Write the C-alpha cells for this entry.
Amino acid sequence: MALRLALAAHLACAFGAAVLFWVPIAAAKGGPLHLKAGRLYVRLIYLTALTGAPLAAWLFARAAEPAAGRTACFLTYLIAILVMPVYHGVRVARAARTGLPVTSPVHTILSLAAIAAGVALCALAIGWREWPYVLLSPVGPVMGVRALVYARRGGPWREEHIVAMLMSGIAVYTALLVFGLGRTLGVQLTGAGVYGPWLLPAVVGLPLVLWCIRRERAMSATTPSTFRMFRRP
C-alpha cells in the first residue's frame, strides 16, 4: 500500500512538473507568473526525486531479474540529473540577486554525483549492452562539469539559469516517456522505435535550448544587464 502511494505521488509530481515546465518559458521573464510557476516547478522536481528514491531502492532490492536491477540503476541516474540542474539553476539566480556565491557543499556534491553517475552508467550500460542508457549517460557529466565551471568562473547568469532549467525539463520528459509508455501504459515498441522515447525529448529540447540561448544573447546585447528578472514582486 505504501509503495503504491509513493508511486502515485511520484507520477503525479513528475506529470505536474512536465506540464508546468512550459509556463515559465512562455511567461514574461521576471513577472509574477514566471516566478510563481518557477518556484512550484522546482518544488515538484524535488518531490519527484524524493518519492522516486525509495522506489528505485525498493526495485533494486527486490529485483528478481537483471533487467529490474538495471532499471533501478537508471532511475537513480535520472534522479541525479533531475535534481542537479534545478538546484544549480536556482543557485545561479539567487547568486545574481543577492551576490552570494553559487558554490556550496551541496552544489559541489550534487555536481560531482551527476558526473560520477553518468560515468558509472555509461560503463555499466556498455557491459549490459543497454544502448539507450549509453545515449543518456553524458548528460550528467556535461551538466555537472558545466555547473562546477560556472561556480568557479561565473558567466552570463540568465543564460546559465535558462540552460539548467531546460535540461531538467528534458530529463523529466525522458523519464515520463520511457517509464510511462513501457511500464505504466504497457506500450511495447520494436525496432528503431525503441529509441523514440529516449531521443524525442532531446530532439525537441536541445533546439529549444539553443534558441533560448540565442534569444538571451541577442537581448543581452541590446539591453543593460539587470537583476530584476528574478526579484520577488
